[in-house]
Amino acid sequence: MSDPKLLLIDAHALIHRSYHAIERDLTSPSGEPTKAVYGFASTLLKVIKEQQPQYVIATFDAGKSFRAEQFAAYKANRPATPDDLKSQFARCQEFCRVLDIPVFALAGYEADDLIGTLSKQAEEKNLDTLILTGDRDTLQLVDAKTQVLMIMGSTGELKLYDDAAVRERFGFAPEQLIDFKALRGDASDNIPGIAGVGDKTATKLLQEFGSVEKIYHNLASVEGKVGEKIQAARAQVELNKQLVTIDRAAPVTLDVNAARFGEYERAPAVELLRELGFQSLLARLPGDGDGDAADLAAHAPQDIESKYAAVLSETDLAALVKRIKKNKAFV
C-alpha cells in the first residue's frame, strides 16, 4: 500500500484488551483508575509513530447493536463492565480529542460497522486503510486497500494482516471468514455454530464450495452426518451470516479534512497526560518534543540537597542495612 493512509482505531477492543492485559492497577495522582487509558494511549502513540498515518479516526461502540434485535442472545454471555473500567472510556475519548482525532460512535452500531463503512469510503477516495484492533472480526475487511494491525495476546505484540497473511493463517480468503463464522459460530458473541462441525470441517467445506450459499446449493455433495447437520442447522447458519457480517453502509461519512492528523495543540495534550500521571508518554507525543522536555524540567523539584556514600565492603553494607531498618525509610 502506497497511497495516503487512514488509521482506524477499534477503540473498544483496544481499551478492553489494555484493561485485561495490564496486570497491576494504575491510578492517576488523584486516585482515578487509569490502566486501560494508559494501555490505549501507549499503543496508539506507538502505532502512530511507526505507521505515520496522514489521517486518524477512533471508533467506539454505543449501546446495544441492531444485531441484538435480530438475535436476543447476541453477546448475552458478556460480563458487566467493571466499575473501574467504565470511566476510562470517556478518558480515552478525551485523549483522542486532545490529539484532534475525530471520535465516531453511533447508537445501534458497533465500532466494527463504523470501521467497515469508513474503510469502504476511504477506498473510494483512494486511501489505504490500516485498522488497529484486537478483534478478529475485522479481518473480513482485508483487501488490496485495507490491512489489519492485530494486537496479539497479553504481550501487546502487533501483527499485520494483509490478504496473503489471512490466507496463510486460515486457509481461505478474508471475506470467507464471514462464512466460516456462520458455520462455526462465535462463542465470544454467543453465536452458536453447527454442533459437530469443527474448524477443519468448516475450512474444508469453504475451500471446496466457497460460501455458505454454495454449500447449501450443493448439499447433496456433502455426504454423511455432516450434510445432515448442516441441513438441520440451515436457519441458524443463515442468521449467523447476517450477525457476523460487518455493515459497510452505516450512516457515517468520512471527512478527510477533519481526519487529517498532526495539527493539534500540544498544551492540552501535555496537561492531560500530566493530570493522568503519564509522564513517560510526554516525550512520545507526535511532533516537536522539546517543549515537553522543558515542561518536565519546569515541574521538577529544584535545589535538592544530596549526600552520597560508597558501599565498598560487607561491613559498609551491613551498616547501611542497619540504618535503613532504624529509620524505616530509604530515599
Supply the CATH superfamily name of the largest domain. Answer: 5'-nuclease
Number of helical elements: 15
Mean pLDDT: 89
CATH fold title of the largest domain = Rossmann fold
CATH class of the largest domain: Alpha Beta
Number of distinct beta strands: 6
Domain tally: 2
- How far the N terminus sits from the C terminus, by CA atoms, comes to 53 Å
Question: Which helices and strands, and how do they pair?
Answer:
Layout: E1 5-10, H1 11-21, H2 35-51, E2 55-60, H3 67-70, H4 83-98, E3 103-105, H5 111-124, E4 128-133, E5 146-152, E6 157-161, H6 163-170, H7 177-184, H8 199-209, H9 212-217, H10 224-232, H11 234-244, H12 256-259, H13 266-276, H14 290-298, H15 314-327
Parallel strand pairs: 1-2, 1-4, 2-3, 4-5
Antiparallel strand pairs: 5-6
Helix pairs in contact: 1-2, 1-4, 2-4, 7-8, 7-11
